Each structure stands twice: as structure tokens, then as C-alpha cells.
Amino acid sequence: MPSLFNPLQLGSLELPNRIFMAPLTRARSGRDGVPNELMARYYAQRAGAGLIITEATGITREGLGWPGAPGLWNDAQVDGWKIVTDAVHAAGGRIVAQLWHMGRLVHPDLGGGQPVSSSATTAPDFAHTYDGKKPYTEARAATPADIGRILDDYARAARNAIAAGFDGVQVHGANGYLVDQFLRDSANFRDDDYGGSIDNRIRFVREVLEAVGGEIGMDRVGIRFSPNIHVQGVEDSNPIQLYAELAKTLEELKVPWIELREPDKVTSSGSVPTAPVSPAMRRLYSGKIVINSDHDWTDARGRIAEGHADAVSIGRLFIANPDLVKRIALDAPLNPGDPASFYSGGAQGYTDYPALTEQEAA
Ligand SMILES: Cc1cc2nc3c(=O)[nH]c(=O)nc-3n(C[C@H](O)[C@H](O)[C@H](O)COP(=O)(O)O)c2cc1C
What we know:
Largest sheet: 8 strands, parallel
Shape: globular
Oligomer: single chain
Radius of gyration: 19 Å
Bound molecules: flavin mononucleotide
Structural class: alpha/beta
Order of helices and strands: EEEHEHEEEEEHEHHEHEHEHEHHH
Strand order of the largest sheet: 3-14-13-12-11-10-5-4
Number of strands: 14
Strand content: 15-25%
């Protein structure tokens, strides 16, 4: 029976434990999307995680609509990330970059022009801009030329990630962003090879994975999905069938690991989950499955021991507890987090959460 503290191999990654830091947008980069020393300190403090998955990181200006979020499309950003990966490695950790194209969730004010999506749709609610929240604008449907260019953008970002010293990448296929806008049928109304049937809706993510894996080797690639929740206007009418088919594609492509944001109760943002897809995926996919969302390690430990999953990723508790893995091992008390500084600010609420003292850890 594997425990949270057993090592785990994910493709080329050798991990000392199965408690991952989930991707967390913290918006501490500049407008140029260049990571900095403060971010290096934050990530290095969390190097005890079996694996750190970075905050979502834009593959292009077009794909990045979050003020203060980092990018991976130019040399300055690569140099900034090198500071981060060096600091994490020096602290004994491992880190992969989450590659992000937000699709229709990018406001033109961020400088990328009219947003692009699977179809000409407008996302619900409000976009983030440097001047506060504004209504989303209508996206245009990606042309075949756009799709080819975006695949190249993914490949370049993956190449840049390796140049920046990352141990691999995770494609962001969750939470209503571009990959999800192709995948799930509430946002994809195309009538060409990229829309309609499940096979067609899977085509874009398949091509993204082929582009990224072709560039850096599939043994360094993972992907995240949010299969059983409605997020940012994206959901599916038949998630189990869709993700079962997707599992076969991931198996065929030899993608070594997936992370599923798959809550089993109403989430903190009020989303009501449908039935989990992970049992169906588990039967068809031999790669490793990382579960996430509103888990504490009691239920995660059980699901891993029973073989339903291989690892757990933890988000909010990692914000407030840089040494979370040690605290779990010692059953030590946890710092409370301050949601007001989750998505913005400087060092406060970012690098000032205390680790256990030597006495407390003894
Ligand atoms: C502040 C914050 C930022 C987040 N940023 C990202 C992100 O960049 N990419 C992503 O895939 N999910 C993101 N999420 C979702 C988390 O990775 C995770 O799925 C969610 O917090 C549930 O896990 P938890 O209950 O362990 O916090 C974010 C969540 C929070 C609270």
C-alpha cells in the first residue's frame, strides 16, 4: 500500500513524496511577465513538495490575460524563471511550469488583440485587467492557421521552460481556458475537425501534447483537467464518456501523468461537482493520476492506499504553509491563509508565512 511519503516516478521525474504543490496564480510578476527574486524565494520555501507545479504561465501575449502573471515566450522571462528554478533546485526541490493559453478569457486591454477561442463566444462574468474587472469581449473562432500558430507557441514555451531549468511542464487543460474551450461541449460549437464529436473535440489537446512532447520529450510532460465541475462557462454534457475517450488518447501518446481537479463536494467557489471521471480514466490509462481539490491528506491518503490515485496536489494550504509536507508528516498545526493576498500584493501574505521552528519540528 503506497503512502503519501513513498517516492514516485512520473516519466523522467523522480519524486521523494506524493504531496504536490498545486498550480497557484499569485500575480507577483511585472507587466512584462518576468519572474523575479521574490518569486524565487516563495517557490524555494516550498521545495519540500514532492513536485511544485508553478502558477499558470502564459505561452504568448495573446494567451495571457491575468495582470501580474508570468510568461514564457521571451528571453527575459526565461532568465527570470532561471532565478526561480535555481533557487528551488538549490533547496532540494523539483518544479514544472504550467503552460497557459486563456483563450476567450483574455481581455483586449492586456494587449493581445481580440481573444481567440474554439468558437465565437463570450465568456460569462468579468475579465481581469490592470484597470479592474471589465466585461469579457467576444472571442473569434480560431482558424486553422491560428491553431497551427498556437501549437508552435506551445512548443516554444516548452522549449523555453527547459532552457529556464524546469524539470518539465504541465499543460493547463482545466478551468475553462483554451484547451478546455475546445474539449468540453458547452464552449465548442465548431463544425470542422475540431468540433462536434468527442474525437474531434479531443483533437486540439492531442495536437498540443504532440507539439509539446515532440519538443521536449513526452517523459517531461503532464496535463491538468477539471472534468467534473463547471468553470468559467465551460462544462460538458457527458463528462465520463469524454474523459474516458481522452484517457485512451493519453495512453496512446504515452503522457506519463495527469492531474485532475476533481472535487467530491461543492467547491469553495460554489461549483457543484458531477460524478468523478477518475475511475473510468484509471481503467484506460496506465500513467500516474494526481488528485486535487479540497482534499486534506486524510482522504487523499486513503485514496492513494486503495490505488485510486498516485499522488495528491494541495493548493491553498501550501500558500499558508511553506513546509506543508513536514507539517503533514509531524501532524503539526497549520497556519491559516489570508485570501486577501492570494491574488495580489508583494511579500506580505506571500513569503512571510512561517515555517515550523526547529523546536516545533523536533
Ligand atoms: C489563489 C489561487 C490561484 C490558483 N491558480 C491556479 C492556476 O494558476 N492554475 C490552475 O490550474 N489552478 C489554479 N488554482 C486552483 C488550485 O490549483 C486548486 O485546484 C484549488 O485551489 C483546489 O485545491 P485546494 O483545495 O487544495 O486549494 C488556483 C487556486 C487559488 C486559490
